[in-house]
Each structure stands twice: as C-alpha cells, then as structure tokens.
Amino acid sequence: MSDLWPRKPRDWQSKAFGEYVAHLRQDYLAAVCPGAGKTVLALALAKYLLQQGRAKKVVVVSPTEALTRQWCDKAAEFGISLDPDTNLRSPFQHPRQFVGVSVTYQAVAASGAAQGLCNALNIHSTFVILDEVHHTGERKAWGDAVLKAFELARYRLLLSGTPKRSDTAKIAFATYATGPDGKERIHRDFTYGTGRGVRDFVIRRTDCRFYDAEVKEVPFGEEVAVSRNLSEALRRDDVSDMLRAVMAPDSGWLYELMKSVHKELSAIRRTVRDAGCLILADDQDKAKAYADVIKRATGCDATVVISEDEEAKGKLEAFSASRDPYIIAVRMVSEGVDIPRLRVLVYLTRTKTELFFAQATARVVRISDPRDTDPAVIFMPSLPVLRELAQGIEDDVVHEIEELEQEQSPQDASAPSPPPRAEHAVTNSTYPSQLPDSGDLLDFSSIAVGPGGQMSLLPSAVSVDNVALQQTLLGANAHEPYLHYQAQDVIDRYGYPQTVIGMLRQMIQDGLIREPGNPQQEPEPPDDTPPAIEADYRIRAHRRKELETLARRIARQFFTDDFTGVRNQINRETGAYAQYGSTEQLKAGIDYAKEWLRRLAAGAP
Q1: Phi and psi for 509 in degrees, rounded to 5?
Q2: Which pick of 142, 373, 558, 570 has the fewest CB atoms within 10 Å?
Q3: Mean pLDDT (whole number) for 425-429
Q4: Smallest Cα–Cα separation from 478: which of 573, 377, 345, 576?
Q5: Residue 532: DSSP 8-state
C-alpha cells in the first residue's frame, strides 16, 4: 500500500488505515485530535477505495469554503482531483478529470442541493468524507441536509477532533450506545486523542498565559471608585461588564498585552522565522480596531480576516504563504483552517464553550517540522472559566498518557516517562460556561466614567497570573521568557537543533548548563516531502482566465467586441468550454486563440 501515501504515514495513520479496510463498514467515526493529520488518512482511504473500484466518486464536506479548497489542494497530492465550484443540483456534471467534489455543509443545506446529491449518489458508488462532523446535529438544518443528501452513500467516513456537541442533538450517521448510567454516548471506531498526539510529538504541548487587569468600578449612586481584578469576577453580569471593558480596543490592556505577545513571538521567530500569531476577536469591528492597536504596540501590520469580506479567502492564502507575524480573525480561522506556522494564540473572544476553546487552541499546535516541537503559547484573560477549560484539556492529556504508559510493557525502556500531574487551578463551578453574545452588550467606548455603575480601567494595569497551568506537559518547565532567551542564545551560537530548547531551558533553571562542545550541524529538512502539486481546480481557473483574456482581445481588436462569437468558435474547435472543458481542452483553447490572434494580426483570415 506504499503507493497510496505521498509521504510515509504516521504510525497511527497506518493503524487506522488497516482497521478501516479490514472492516469496510458503511459508517466509520474516527475521533482524531486536531492537527494530527486526519485529512491525510481520509484521502489515503479515498485513493484505496477508488483503486479497488469500491467507489467511483468522492464527496468531501467541511464547515468553511477555505477548508473546501484546502481539501482540494491536499487531495491533489494523492492524485485525486476534487471540484470546489460544482453545482450541487447536478454535482458530478463537471470536467472529466474531476472524480468528486469538495463542498461546505452550508452548500449542502441550500435549496435543492441535498436532493441533487441524493440523486447523484443513487447512480454512483460514492465515498463521503464528513469533516468536523460534529456540526451536523440531527433536527438541525445542516444535520437534516446531510442525512438526506448522503443516505445512499456506499461509505461514510466521519471525522472530528471533538466528536460532541454543546446541545443534545445527535451527530448525523453516528452510532450511540447507552451506558450503565443510562446516558447515551457516541461510539468511536478509532480514537487518537490529544494525549497520544503530544506523546508522539505529532502535536505541540501548550503554555497557557493568563493575564489579569485591574478594573475601577463606580457603583450605582456612589462617587468613590472600587478597584477589582478581572480574575475576581464570578457573577455573569460582572464578568460581562468587566471583560467588555478590558477587551475594548482603547482600554490600554490589549496594548500592554501585545507587547508581551510580540516579545514572545519575536523570540520564537529567531529560529522559526515564519512563526505566526493568531488573535481571535469577538466581532469584525473589534478585529479592525485591534489591528491598529497591534500596529502601535509592535510596529507590525496585522492581516484581518472576516467572513463578510469578499477577499477573505485570498487573505488567508496569502497569509499562509507569507512570513507575516499577525492575523486577526473572528471565527473563520477558529476551526479546521490549516496554517501550520501559527505558534501563538491570543484568545480575545467571549465564547467560552469547551468545543470552541478546543478548536481554537488546536490552531497553534500543529507540528510541520520535526525539528521544531517546542510548545505553543496561548495568551488569555485571567478568567476562572478559561482556567477550567485549559485545565480540563491538560487533565485529559495527562490521563490519556498515563493510560498509554499502563498499557506498555514495564520492560519497554524506550517509552517516555509519564508526565507529572499538574495541580488544579482555582476554579468556581458557578462560573458561566457561555457569556452573552456581543450583540447583547453596549459599546463601552460610548460610556463615560461617573455615577451610575459605569466603569473604566486604571492605566496599564496588566499582571501575569502564575497558576499551575503554566507548567507544560511531559515534564517540561514553564515557558518563562528569560529561560527561552538564554536557551535560544545557546542554539544560535552553537548551531544546535531547535528541538533541544526545552532541555536547555531545564538545564539553565537547574544550574547545570555547561559550555557546549563541538557545534553540531542542524539536520537537513526531511527529504520525504513530495513536491507541491497544483490542484486541477486552480489550473483550470488560471487557464480560464488566460483564455478569456485572449478571447476579449481578439473580439475587441477584430470583431467589434463580439466576445460571445469569438468564444463560441474557440469552444467548437477545441472543446474549451468554461464550465465543462478539461484542463487539456482549456490549454488547447489557449493555443488555438494565440495562433488565431497571430494570424489576424498578420492579416490572414
């Protein structure tokens, strides 16, 4: 099966592949932690089923348009050509080089789309990949559309890093079983959790930084201000008001916070030169305002990506390919979007559900270079609910690693030692799990300081909340800046690989650091990475644009702007139709148009 993989698969991918093809069930749920490579597994399975003739078509469904194109680009590495721009009323009526489509859940739920897909799947044996399938709750718009559209699929692969929902709706096509306690729980056919991913160095550990702020509040009917810390707010109303004040762009808190963020990111970029930082904002107005604050605090421009922006997809692609340091997003980048160079997250959103938090933090834990396995850094307001969420993720990781260690033979000396269990952070069980949406809150910038319950911030009131959660996993020390800088100096001076930075930090803190011996060369990048392959849909887009430019030039210069007539002749001669022409036919159309233009310019008919 080595020809199925463009690069050597990870051990878990090989195991999951073997288990899947051994059973070939109609529905299969793979619960794989974000960043571990579930896309690669799914496409290897798609290639296998196509080669074996068990499937003739492939359909990939994901939450966002950006993801649909990422699936197309990744599928091209496997020799699978997916169309992201098809009409779902007739999904497989596209150029012949495409073997399937990549669409969003929203598109499937559009009028007529689910029925069109159902009709097409009734004719073609189809392998359906439902990415981030937890979005498809039964009796919900997306879930009902998916159930209708893919009822007749031959195989359905359900993928999710977090296979659960905040509500009680069941996930489409998932199997549930009733436990001894009478509660229904989802059945996972394959599980690769965060703890295993951390232990295998497939995803990064995380350093969580909690920053507090002192807020000056004027109680109703009083004249004397009362100062409180953000971390002390427990009631829902207090949290909403205080957090709204702290996170206002003109509060001064973000300005001071971004200085610390920039210092950390700059240290990482000394060796990981394209490392990036993602800032999650509540709404597009704040996102735009935060960009100005970041410019003042760091001197760097930030890319702002919001779903309402028509150029959002292009901005995402441009940022992914660049070395720019900062990107600000509302929700578009919080789930699924693959920007492997992201290393730092600034969490400035009032959404505090466990599912959203896990998906957001997963944006910065992907490991794209085996030489760089240092922790990701997450900056957050010092709120008990965030400490609870972060502590919950850490507890899950520690618990899974401990279970893995118990499963291993005691004689296995090569196995990594179990990590120490971090102490629980101070929590409060009455703290709200979901804060009000921004639409329910007033604009703090329009409120003046004075009697009546308004509040303001003391200038530059930022402090670090040193909770136990700052300890990283697998026995590493806290990601203290001074340790990081000293360890980085040793790496830069002697050419050590970036992967030893955690060990150097430990040695520095313990006073055991010694003058290094002979410098060693940094290892070459892995040579098993396949060359970049441009997906067919991108090639078609380039060629369609070039052909239309030539046709308009011919029409304008020689046929009184009769573009339709010129285009029809090219289509008749070469089959280079805009909608159905293959990449080869479009290339033939371009060659024909160039030769036609040359003849016309020379005075020939």
Answers
A1: -65, -35
A2: 558
A3: 31
A4: 377
A5: P
C-beta of residue 324 within 8 angstroms of C-beta of residue 303: yes
Residue 458 confidence (pLDDT) above 80: no
Tell me the residue type at 351: T
d(CA 589, CA 591): 5
Which position has the token pair 């693959």?
338
Per-residue CA distances from 123 to 46, 48, 104 (Å): 18, 20, 22
What Cα–Cα distance (Å) separates residue 514 from each residue in 483, 485, 527? 15, 16, 33
**What's the CA gap between 548 and 530, in Å, rounded?**
33
> For residues 477 and 286, what is the distance between their CA atoms, to the nearest angstrom?
34
Burial class of 430 by CB neighbour count within 10 A (0 to 12, 13 to 18, 19+): exposed
Q: Is the dihedral of CA 112, 115, 121, 123 positive or negative?
A: negative
Q: Are strands 302-305 and 326-329 parallel, antiparallel or unpaired?
A: parallel
Alpha helices in 91-154 (DSSP H): 105-108, 113-123, 141-149
- Which tens digits make up the pLDDT trace of 358-374? 888 888 888 877 777 78
CA nearest 61: which of 101, 26, 118, 95? 101
Task: Give the residue among 348, 337, 291, 282 at the shortest CA–CA distance from 312.
Answer: 337
Instruction: Say how many C-beta atoms besides its own lie within 10 A of residue 112's C-beta.
Output: 11
Q: pTM of the predicted model, to two decimals?
A: 0.73
Output the six-digit token pair for 495. 């050419």
Q: Which two structure tokens, joined as six digits, stand for 128?
A: 């359906």
d(Cα 262, Cα 277) in Å, to the nearest integer?
9
Question: Two tokens at 352?
Answer: 């505090």
172 within 8 A of 105, measured Cβ to Cβ: no
3-state secondary structure 461-520: EEEEECCHHHCCCCCCCCCCHHHHHHHHHHHHHHCCCHHHHHHHHHHHHHCCCCCCCCCC
Q: What is the mean pLDDT of residues 24-43?
A: 91
